[in-house]
Amino acid sequence: MNVPFVDLRAQHGPLAQEILSSWGKILDDGGFVGGEHIEGFEREFAAACGADHAVSVASGTDALRFAFLAKGVAPGDEVLVPANSFIATAEAVTQAGATPVFVDSDPQTHVIDPAAAAAAVTSRTRGIAAVHLYGQTADMDALGSLARAHNLWIVEDAAQAHLAEFQGRRAGSLGDAAAFSFYPSKNLGACGEAGAVVTNDAAVADRVRMLRDHGQTRKYLHAVEGYNGRCDALQAAALRIKLRHLPRWNEQRRALAARYVERLRSCEDITLPTTAPDCLPVWHLFVVQLASRNVVQAALTERGVATGIHYPVPLHLQPAYARLRCREGSLPNAERCAQRILSLPMYAEMPPGHVDYVCATLREILSAQRA
Question: What per-residue confidence (pLDDT) applies to 270?
Answer without folding.
Answer: 98
